[in-house]
Amino acid sequence: DYEYALDRDCTTLSRHVLQQLQSFSPDAQDLSALMNRIALAGKLIARRLSRAGLMEGVLGFTGDVNVQGESVKKMDVYANDVFISVFKQSGLVCRLASEEMERPYYIPENCPIGRYTLLYDPIDGSSNTDINLSLGSIFAIRQQEGDDSDGAATDLLQSGRKQIAAGYILYGPSTMLVYSIGKGVHSFSLDPSLGEFILTEENIQIPEKGAVYSVNEGNFWQWEESIREYIRYVHRTEGYTARYSGAMVSDIHRVLVQGGVFLYPGTTKKPDGKIRLLYESAPLAFLIEQAGGRASTGTQEILDVVPRQLHQRTPLIIGSKENVALVESFIQQQAKEQ
Ligand code: P6P
């Protein structure tokens, strides 16, 4: 009805955060404003992606190689800089740690206790940019603890339980922002005519079990035998279907909505897998746990892993409780047999 429609159109992200916190304290206002800046970053990135084929500087590579040894896409650099610039003069975030930067970026000269750190993957799945397929940004917010005047950011080497908020932006047919501040998972859709993210769904619950398994089967012969056994099982068992897009945010959004599991196991070339803990698997694990799902390395909850260094990778098995447990049962079975 009219009331409902108007109220819903007015449930912007920043208002929703305050509703979630049921508070107008300075901290609540800060978090609300911070989420609003993340929404602005999402709008700027979505706008550029929508013009990929129409302007220079969006498609293709910069010619550089990043700290991960991966060739850098123009969109990686643009998106990374967008997050930095939306937080300048915000007084909210004093430090940004990103897949694209060897060391964190400090907005003031150092990061005072009580301010926030943004950990983010500015564009996840950037290989999809040049083929006009979906991709995402992933973010996590932590509170600055202790003194980081030496710029070593060692306080970030703590488990994902320290996250205050996390989420992703999915640049798909519509642009969606999905977030949690520890009080459930909520999704917003960008209304380009308003330039606002409007509430789409509250308290999203991931199904206990799902049909989808999402993994790059091209790595089959690089996996542990236990993962190969799991894949053979889902191949011969009724009721499973494979979906893999090359952009984890899309694949995990599908798993969140429909149920199932996304996995990026370790390989012979990359025993710890490819996915980064601090700004990819930990934020996604925070979100999926809030939605009633699970995220594991195969032997440990993702949120319990304490990183040794900023860009640490972990194997990732994430999704519906039953689907994650099934993968783990094959890993445990192999461990017993060894
Ligand atoms: P592969 C993108 O680079 C990414 O981090 C994820 O978004 C995606 O799921 C994965 O890597 C794709 O990697 O090795 O399957 O091509």
Automatic annotation (TrEMBL):
One of its GO terms (molecular function) is fructose 1,6-bisphosphate 1-phosphatase activity. Residues 12-202 form the Fructose-1-6-bisphosphatase class I N-terminal domain. Mg(2+) 1 binds at residues 99, 121, 123. It catalyses: beta-D-fructose 1,6-bisphosphate + H2O = beta-D-fructose 6-phosphate + phosphate. Mg(2+) 2 binds at residues 121, 124, 280. Residues 206-331 form the Fructose-1-6-bisphosphatase class 1 C-terminal domain. Homotetramer. This is Fructose-1,6-bisphosphatase class 1. It comes from Chroogloeocystis siderophila 5.2 s.c.1. The lineage of its organism: Bacteria, Bacillati, Cyanobacteriota, Cyanophyceae, Oscillatoriophycideae.
